[in-house]
Each structure stands twice: as structure tokens, then as C-alpha cells.
Amino acid sequence: GRHGGHGTARPPRRRAGVFLGPFAAAVGLVVLSGFGVYAFASSRGDCSGGGAMTVSVAAAPDVEPAVAKAAGRFNDARHEIGGRCARLRVRAADPAAVATLLSGKGSAGVTERPDVWIPDSSLWVRLVQGSGRPAQAVPFTGLGGIASSPIVVAMPKALAAQLRAAGVPERPSWRDLLVAAGTADGSGAAPDAGNGGAIPAHLLRLQVPDPDRSATGMGTLMLAGTLMGGSPGGEAVFTGVVRTIREGIAASVNAEFTAFRGGSEQPYPVALAPERAVFAYNAAHAADPAVAVYPSEGSVFLDYPVTVLGKDPAKVRAGRLFEKALTSKASRADVRRLGLRTPDGAAPASFTARTGVDPRVPHALAAPSASAVAQTMQAWAQLSLSIRMLSIMDISGSMAEPVAPGVSRLQSTIRTAQGGLSLLPDDSELGQWEFSTDLPGGQDWRELVGVGPLGERLGSSTRRQRVLSAFAQMRVKKHGDTGLYDTVLAAFAYMTRTYKPEFVNSILLWTDGRDEDPDGPTLDETLAELGRAYDPQRPVQINMLGYGPDVDVRDLRRVAHATRGEVYVAETPQQIQGIFLKAVSRRVCEPSC
Fold it and tell me: Which parts of the chain span the membrane according to its record (predicted)?
């Protein structure tokens, strides 16, 4: 129907999914660089008279050849609508570029709004609908899909054989594949050995096309939201998935496969790609083929929807007639020749083990709403920003308390911090302080490593190595108290003074107690100073990780909330990694946390 839902034909056996819910506010659609590649439908006939109605069609490049052939047959049939002959003009257009135009965010290489739009996925339509602009400006009439292609895990055939020989099932789970690609699961638990858990951690190097430019990349985020958003620690897991995707972004789907020809060293390259891309790659690289792996939970399908834009009833009628032509027997044959399935999931006859793809119909995960797409893409936009963080470790006397045989509270916390450090890419900026009371220099805090890029070389080592070395040398200050408020104000002043707008700027303070410095500022004085210094246009967020039974959550929370931060408390060492990821994922809700 008009102005709202976008109905598409989808493969059967659809499973319900739960999309990430905590990410509110409207999406800021990035102005994308797109390319409109023009191709006109050939027609062996012509409309008589001068009253022909031209209907422009923008189709995703991978389905455009089939659309152009169908348009040629349509034009030959000389359909009359309201006494006028309808003629279709087809052009290949990047769906991201069309979405940018329709959202009112720019042109990105496409300047003409089509009458009929056939992107590779309904996700683009829902993204535009969720942008808050098109409902008034551009009415949408959603028709059926004309093809389908599931997102699969593509890997070199030799790697797939190696995994099967090691006991990995034919259809491992998405979670286990992501853990094997370096994504923390947020629970501290080992992968399920009966459902793909045989894949060694960090064995795989994930390649994903940019979610801002590719429906496959966007679909990967939706898939992560579906499978993990409703589970305990879902935000933390999503944060880990985004980090993994961000580190493995490829310029395009085709670019993903270049890594398959770059050697055989671990971690092995795998690509999230549409099934038809695996089929096309193997057609051109028979000597070094890829294999499509279909995870057990199912997948998101590219569905190639036909969408009519605008109110003109004649063009809406033409769009409906063309949608019927696109699902004819001849058009379905054209679609299958491109390595695409038909809307019901039926595969081309050429889909065999030899061509690396499975003709069986995978389970299809439920399609998200327009608001879910907007919220998830907003989460991606926030989480894919680089981090600039000052980490501050409590070394007061109580941190010597044992939490396990032979392990002190400080040692356990440092292990957590070391694990968290491994989750941050090299372009993240990090610094490390420690605090107690009356440290050398007469202050309650001491800088160990200045804030800067983790990958930056500092003499013979990198900043990441310097931070790890600082952790190794960190010791409890015997009889030291907790100069917390003094340290918080000093850290906040430093991070505000050195604020960088291209980063998410934050402070992460690790403590096991409360402020115990009688010579330092009071809670009220601390809150008053933070209230004066906090600038919502240059936000620096204070997050605190409390560990143990003596944490004064109420007072710490008042301090954190003054900067729109939060306090997280861990009772056991096993909870720390998930809490660390949750603290990092706080930036999703900025600046409205």
C-alpha cells in the first residue's frame, strides 16, 4: 500500500527475529558516494503517436540485465494506460546512491528520482522510510520482490574442507562463526561445542562490505541484531560484532574475494556476501573456488523489491504491470541466469556442490521494520566512530583483597583491562592513569601512558605495548586510600581540554570502593564542578566499573550521570568482559543517554 509498509515476496520458512531495541533516535544517513550506471531497455517495437508516457526504472546493477530484458518485452507489448502508451527506460543505479537522493541528504551520483526503484534489498526502502523525510515528500507503493539471494559466509574451498575435517558441522552457528572471527560473545562462556563450537577462536578474518554502502553489510548488522539483540548481554555482543565488522570492511562485495587469493596464513579470510556473488566468483576462478556456508539459524535475504515512487496513478499502474512482467516465466529464467534465486527461494539448476552453492532453501530471518533499520544504522554510525578513552585504575590498599586463590582484586581487574584492550583497534586513542592517595608528586593520580593512538610507535614499542607494560608493573599502594573525586575532576578537565570531535571521548574508571580522601573535594563540590564544565556540544562521558561488595553505587552513579555516563558493577571476574563491552556500547545513546 501507499505511504507505509513495503510488501515483498520472501522465501519460505521464515523465523521470527528480535531486533536491537535500545538504540533510539533518528538515523543520520551518511551522504554516500554512489555511481549511476545507465543502461536503456532495448525495444524492438515503439509506441505510436506522441502521447507516450515514459516510466524511468532504477535497478540494482546485479539484477539490471534481467530487468532490462523484461522492460524490452514490456515495451514490445505496447501497454496502454489511460489512453497513453507506457514506455520503460531502465538504468543501473547504486541502491545506496538512490537512497541518499530519496532521503534528501544529497545526490551521491544519482540526481534523477526514478518512477520505479528496484534496489537489491528492502532494507534500503526501510532506511529511507525511517529517515523521517520521504513519507511526506515521496509516497512509496511497495510491490513484490523479483529475485532473492541469502547472505552467506564465503570461504576458500580448502578452508571449508579443513573445518569439516576438524568436526565443524556443515551449518555452524552465526555466533560461533563470529567468535572464531574475533568477536567476543559478552558472556565469558565458551562456544557451544555441539553447534559449531569446534571452530578455534580467532581462526577467521572477517570481510564485510561497508554497511553504509552495501545491503549485504547492512543486512549483517540486522542479522546480528536479530540473533543477539534479545539475548543476555545483547548490547555488548552487538558492540563486539560492530568492532569486528569495522576492522574488516571491504570497499565492495567483489573486493572481499581478493583476499582469498592472498595466501593461506591464519587468520583465514572469510567474507559475508550474497550467495550470487559466490556463484559469480567461482564462474571466474574455477581453479581456486570459494564455498558458501549457510549458518544454522538462517539468514537475511536480499529480495530485490519493486517500489513505485510518487502519486501518479498511471505510473503506479505501469509499475504494477511491470512487476507482473518481472515475475513471468521468461523473467524468472533471466534472474536465475544471473545466479539469483526466484522470490520463493528456488535456485538455478546450476547451483551444485561443484559451483560452491547449495540449492536447498535456507531459513529466512524475519524482515525488520523501518524503525528497526533506522535504529540499528544509528547504532552502527555511533559504534563505528573511533574511541578516545582515558582508562584509570584504582591501586588503593583494598585492591589487594583476594578474589580467588592467589589472585588479588587488582590482578583480576588488570586481566579484564588487558582483555578489553585487545578489543580496541589500533586507531583507537587510549591513555592509562592509576590513582590512590598521595602518589609521587603530591597528587592522587599518576599518568602512566599519555592518550594517543594505540598503534602509534613510541620509541621501540607501540602505545598498546606501553599500556600492557604499565599493567604488568602496576602494584597496590599499601595503606593507600581512594582519592576518587580529585582524580575524576583532573581526568575530566584533561579530556575536555584535549577533546577531539571526530572521536567518542570518554573516561573509564575502575574502582572497588568510594572516595576516601578527606583533603579532596566533596561529592557536592565534584558534582557542581562537573555541572559547570560539562558541554553537551563537546561531551566527555565518565563511565565507572565497580568491582566488589564495597562499591558505593549511589554516589558513583551521581558522578557518572552528571556527564551522561553510567556505573557498572561486577561481582565476579567472569562478569568483567561483558561489562567492559557494555560500558563501551554506552556511546550508542549519545548524546541522549
Answer: 18-41
The CATH number covering residue 571 comes to: 3.40.50.410
Phi-psi region of 236 (alpha: psi -120 to 50; beta: other; left: phi over 0): alpha
Where does the pLDDT of residue 136 fall: very low under 50, low under 70, confident under 90, or very high at 90 and above? very low
CATH number, domain of 48, equals 3.40.190.10
In whole angstroms, give the CA distance from residue 188 to residue 203: 18
Three-class HEC string of 347-399: CCCCCCHHHCCCCCCCCEECCCCHHHHHHHHHHHHHHCCEEEEEEEEECCHHH
Looking at the structure, do residues 494 and 537 belong to the same domain, yes or no?
A: yes
Residues 155 and 141 in one domain: no
Query: How confident is the model over 230-258, as a mean pLDDT?
Result: 76
pTM for the whole structure: 0.69
**DSSP result, 130-185:** TTTSHHHHS-EEEEEES-BEEEEEEEEHHHHHHHHHTT--SS--HHHHHHHTT---
pLDDT at 21 over 90: no
Determine the pLDDT at residue 431: 97
**Residue 53, beta-bridge partner list:** 86
Greater confidence, 579 or 294? 294
Q: How far apart are CA 453 and CA 252, in angstroms?
A: 27
- DSSP state, residue 260: G
SS3 558: helix
State whether 246 and 284 are in the same domain: yes
Instruction: With respect to residue 1, please indicate whether it lies within any of the assigned structural domains.
Output: no
- Best CA proximity match to 66, nearest among 147, 9, 150: 147
| 465 & 580 share domain | yes
Q: Cell 553504509 sits at which residue?
A: 212
Cα-atom radius of gyration of the chain, to the nearest Å? 27
Is 90 strand, coil or helix?
strand
Rounded distance between C-alpha atoms, residue 369 and residue 227, angstroms: 16
- Asked if residue 3 is part of any domain, the answer here is no
| Bond preceding residue 150 cis, omega within 30 of 0 | no
Residue pair 368/222 in contact (Cβ under 8 Å)? The answer is: yes
Task: Give me the pLDDT at residue 89, please.
Answer: 95
Grid cell of 101 as nine digits: 537522493
At which of 293, 325, 340 does a domain end? Answer: 293
3-state SS class at 58: strand
Co-location of 283 and 423 in the same domain: no
Rounded CA-CA distance 456/458 in Å is 6
Look up the domain containing 515 and give its range. Answer: 385-589
All 3 cell numbers of residue 425?
Answer: 583497534
399 and 513 share a domain? yes
Residues 6+ apart with CB under 8 A from 247: 182, 425
* 239 found inside a domain: yes
**309 located within any domain:** yes
Give yes or no: residues 488 and 545 share one domain. Answer: yes
Same domain, 143 and 159: no
In the chain, how many domains are there?
3
Distances (CA, A) of 206 to 160, 167, 223, 242, 290: 14, 21, 15, 11, 15
Which cell goes with 472? 604488568
Q: How confident is the model at residue 490 (pLDDT cuts 50, 70, 90)?
A: very high
- What percentage of the chain carries pLDDT values higher than 90? 45
Residues 264-296: tens digit of each pLDDT: 667 788 899 999 999 999 999 888 899 999 999
